[in-house]
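Problem: given the chain below (118 residues), write out its structure.
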Amino acid sequence: MKIRNGFVSNSSSSSFIIIGKTVKLPDKFRKGIICKGDYLCEGYDIFDLTEDIYYKLLERSNYDIELFEGKSYNTEYDDYVEVDSKNLPVGKFKIIALEKDYHGTEDFNDFVDRYVKE
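Solution.
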């Protein structure tokens, strides 16, 4: 357990690391794809690609969303992250450190409200 002394912020974000490869929207839906959307108030909108969101992205390709095939790690309370080499992608991959906004996309309705401007 960590005990914090002194100033503690009431932040709406947490530190995250994404380890993976940038991918295009696949021809068929598959799990394990992480979406990096807009910068919100205190961090990026990071969410898993769901089947509903996948089909909405297929309808139109001009969403400003990056897709990663890989794994995300919450590093809010840790100085490091242990990663098993079996979980690393083969070949070149990215390690992205960023702040994730807690008020980000949690479901299909959030995605539509935030990104679908018809």
